[in-house]
Amino acid sequence: WVSRQHEEEESKLAELKSERSREQGAQKPLEEQILEYSKQLEEDQYGKAEELHRNKMIEMRTTQLLSKDLKLYEEALDQAIVKFHSMKMDEINQNIRDLWRSTYRGQDIEYIEIRSEVEERSERRRSYNYRVVMMRGDADVNMRGRCSAGQKVLASLIIRLALAEAFCLDCGILALDEPTTNLDRENIESLADALVEIIRTRSQQHHFQLLIITHDEDFVQLLVRSGCIQHFYRISKNQDQNSKITKQSTAFLSV
């Protein structure tokens, strides 16, 4: 019995030794791997991992704060744009009313103005639709398709002048091409008076120039009588049918 017990113990011992050898064999590559990892941890890529992690955390937090600030800036800018748009529309419409009342001689339209309507396309996108309306008392009617050709031309000129007054105070050139087209005599005279008033208002602006292209010499005469214009340029054809520009004194129109 003792002999059999001894053999069993010897067998167990041999098995344990074999298992130890296997484990030692498996341990060696692990030790080599640990040694390799230890060397890698000493490199900058891993040796400064804590510092790099801290820097990235700072960068992430800074980005979050920046994103929050940009959101606040976006909201403030959007509100400022809406307020600026409202202020400019009030200014433009005031200019339009003043010019219309001082220019238009009819009794059917008290004044005109531009109406703006906001269209919210999305949370961050906004667009404006504009229309010109005719005012008579408390009633307003869309001008498109309901006004004469002369009223349309006059409204177009007045709106452009109002926009120039609102946005182009530092702009030196105001150009009008055939501004009297479709206007009757009374409204032509009123338009001339309005332009003369603009010239006088802008007289202190050293680089201001009013450029009018017209075939209507009577209209030019009206401007000349104001004393604001000293000369004009006449475009004509020479004998070779080439265009030529001649500077002429306003006295020429009085002849």
TrEMBL record:
Gene3D superfamilies: P-loop containing nucleotide triphosphate hydrolases
A biological process from GO: telomere maintenance via recombination
Alphabetized SUPFAM superfamilies for the sequence: P-loop containing nucleoside triphosphate hydrolases (SSF52540)
Cellular component, GO, one term: Mre11 complex
Principal subcellular localization: nucleus
Compartments in which it is found: Chromosome; Nucleus
Catalytic activity: ATP + H2O = ADP + phosphate + H(+)
Keywords, ordered alphabetically: Chromosome, Coiled coil, DNA damage, DNA repair, Hydrolase, Metal-binding, Nucleus, Zinc
Any Pfam family matching the protein: SbcC_Walker_B
Example GO molecular function: metal ion binding
Start and end residues of each stretch annotated as Disordered: 1-31
Cofactor: Zn(2+)
InterPro entries, per the entry: P-loop_NTPase (IPR027417)
Family: Belongs to the SMC family. RAD50 subfamily.
UniProt cross-references to PANTHER family, sorted A to Z: DNA REPAIR PROTEIN RAD50, RAD50
Name used for this protein in its record: RecF/RecN/SMC N-terminal domain-containing protein
Lineage of the organism: Eukaryota, Metazoa, Chordata, Craniata, Vertebrata
